[in-house]
Amino acid sequence: METDEAPLDDKARRMRDLLSSFYTPIPSISSNSPNDFSRHASPDDINSPTFEPDQYMNVLAHKSNLEALLQKHVEMVAEIKNLDTDLQMLVYENYNKFICATDTIKRMKSNILGMEANMEQLLEKILSVQSRSDNVNTSLSENREHIEKLHRTCNLLRKIQFIYDLPDRLSKCIKHEAYADAVKFYTGAMPIFKAYGDSSFQDCKRASEEAIATIVKNLQEKLFLDSESMQVRAEAAVLLKQLNFPVDNLKARLLEKLKVSLMDIKLDPEVIQNVSSSAHKEAVHEFVEAIRAFKTIFPDSAKQMVKLAQDLVTKHFLIINEYVKTRIHATDLLGVLRIVWSDVLIMDEVLQDASISSYSLEAAEVAIKLYIGSVYSHLMQDISDSLLKVLKRDEAGEYPLEVALEACINVVFRGGRNFLHDIHKILDDNLEIVDKLRDLIIDSVQEGFQEFFRQLEVRFQLLSGRNSSPGTQIQGLTEGGQRDKVLPSLVLVLAQLSVFIAQTTIPKITEELAAPFYSDSVRYYEYRPTFAPEEISQKFKVAGESFLHLYVNMKTQRVSLILHKRFATPNWNKHKEPREVHMFVDLFLQELKIIGSEARQILPQDIRKHKADSNGSTSSSKSNSFREDNRSNNVQKGRNQQLLETHLAKLFKQKVEIFRKVEYTQESVIITIVKLCLKSLQEFVRLQTFNRSGFQQIHLDIQFLRTPLKEIAEDEAAMDFLLDEVVVAAVERCLDPIPLESPILDRLIQAKLAKE
Amino acid sequence: MQAASSGIGYGLKYQARCISDVKADTDHTSFLAGTLSLKEENEVHLIRLSSSGTELFCEGLFSHPNEIWDLVSCPFDQRIFSTVHSNGESYGASIWQIPELYGELNSPQLERITSLDTDAGKIKCVLWWPSGRHDKLISINDENLYLWNLDVSKKTAQVQSQDSAGMLQKLSGGAWDPHDVSSVAATCESYLQFWDVRTMKKTSTIECSHVRSVDYHPKKKHILVTAEHESGIHIWDLRNPKVPIQELPGHTHWTWTVKCNPEYDGLILSAGTDSTVNLWLASTNLDELTTERQEYSPTRWVDSLLHTYSDFEDSIYGLTWSSREPWIFASLSYDGRVVVESVKPFISRK
Q: Which residue from A639, A658, A680 is facing B40, i.e. has the nearest CB?
């Protein structure tokens, strides 16, 4: 019995669960309950799916007493009854619903049956509507086409009207200067004119073309009118372009105009210095404006503009380059550069990408280099000029050598220093362009000095006629007899000048170069080798020495010439008895006097006395005079003995240094020359053979020379020695060397003195 | 200077001007020197350098009738030489022969082969055919140039042709071109003149004043060295005679004579009246010179001066290289002192 009840109860519960899960949207109860069961997991629970009735019954029978069992039984029966009623109710409810649904379906079926007829009716109606509408459409289409045609004609007419009106309209536009509209109209009408211009609208086309021509003309005028605003001109250009007008041509013309205006921009350095540069500024400003305009008008013309600007800069710098070739001051150069730089800056503003400034920087580099070069060449010219004045001296009367030397020194020294000051001025001025070229300027100044001094030395050599390379102008000057007359003094000036340069100018300039140039920063020391003062000063020292030698040489050569003539002319073998002191002595002394005066003008005096010199030769002079006495008395002595004596005397005496080094003093130069001349005299004598009278003549001349030579040369001992040597030579070259008796000698000398 | 003591000395009795290398003597280094004494009997010394090279001894001493102004040894016979001599009034030139057994004779006399007598003029020098045996001689006096035909065996000399120097030109010396035996250079006051001896006509002139001495470069054709009184030494290239290719400063006083070394290119000796002998090393290469000229500077002169021999008391007029030992030269100063020096230390420097 329990077994019957239990599935039933179970079945009902399941049924209810299923139903409730079917009808309630929330499946919580049905789903929860098994969970609960499983949670408890007790097969005793009657509501759980795992309920096992046998076990339940066993447990129940084992655990409960009869009473409890009975009670349980009652409970169960009651529950089963309840379940049954519930089930019954549910079945009824379902049945009801089913019936209801059947009813509804029945009703629906009856309703649909009536609808088909209605539908067919509707179809019929629609078909009729359609045919009607087709009818209407066909009846109206004709009208519609007509209307469309009319509309097209109307449009065409309107266009034709427009074209017919075009000339008027254009002229109206011209009147109002509404060129933009005019151009718009004209370009609108253009296709028609193209298609029918030759036939139907000939007049119209012509008229409008005329109008357009006027427009073009006006536009061009406008374009070229500087007074018009930039905007207007740009527009005009654009319009002209739209009109297919050859703009390139215009552009070329405009460019031409610009170029012409470029011509008008004049940079006259002289004027700029004197008058304010406003005129120039204006011109440049105009030019820049023009460029700006042009750039807006023809945006593709930047290249040409750059070229123009560069041309302007080039032109400016060409002028500057010319300008620096003349003698200008640093401030002048600065002024001009400043102006040009300001121009460049303005132009740079307009033509940003053109790098006019860097272009002009290059040009400025060249200009400054030129300037430095020209300063040097002018300096050189000045020096040459003042040196050449020495040459002209003889023609134009007295031009004292002192003055010439002074002038040269001034030029070299002051010139160099002024130039350096100028350069400093340029460097100190904070002009941008100069700042950028600073290193370059310093470098080229140094290089310049190096080169300048090198050139100067070469020029000196040229002037001295030493460089025997052919075809030099200076040589041409030296030819034609001038060399003998003029050059020695010039050479002397050159010698002293060289010394001055080596000793004073170069150290000074080095100092000046060094001070501000290097103090700026240490790195300038790297550039130092470009100016090597030691080398230059050494060069000038050597040059000075060689000039001094040259001078001495020239002078001795001239004296040699006199002596040569003297000795070559007479036949010494058949000489007549001496009647007077020969005139070559006068020439000789005169020559020495000139040398003396030249030397005194140019060379410094020797401060120390010639102690060593006089000491060196006193003994020798003694022995010599002794020897001479001997000779004059004992001429009859055997030649052997005499020669031996000479040799002995030479052994014992201290050698007089005839050929000592020449110094830069009056005395040294004069003594050297006199010594060399007397040596020459001795050599000339040695080449001749004399008879007694010839010897006497020589003896007389030499005796006469003694006093004046001592005056000139201030070294009695040496003079005596050398004059004695000449006499000795004459004695040796004479078969019968009997000197004049001293009274006659004295008388002749006195007579000569009296003559003077 | 440092080599002052290196020279080997030899004293002549009298003053002297000329010394000549005995070219034909191939066994010994010998020199001939002649004295210049107006009043005494003059001598010709045959000086020989000992084989050890440390001593000069007198190989022969011959009396010469007149004072000797010029002396040249014959290039093909060591016993023959020429002199230009003067008795004080007139000048003459002679060809002499040293007697064969001069060593055994007491006072050997020179044998005069012939004298080169011409009518007028003060004879200056005699030039021998530059090399080898040849019968031609040239004598130069102050007006004329003579070409002689010498016959040693017949002891005669005939003037073959002659030419005058021209008006107002006084010849003073000359040199025979060793490369072109038809050309002779002669010095006069303001020119260096050249003759073609075949036609005996002047061929060209170089303008340079007061040339005292001239010498051809023995190895290089067209190169010529001149010594001038005051302007030093010039080296010329005859192909471009306008400008000297190089200048050397010469001496403090006159540069009297200049001699090119027979063997070593560019080695030049000069002697002067400042009692010194200078040894130069000059470049005779034209290309080198043109590049040098661009960097013209006076210091280059100092560079080319190799050495100055200053161990002399008087002016030096006689100077000769030895052709047998080309590093040896002999110099003769006016006081009769012969000094033989070796330039070996300077040659190695080249």
A: A639
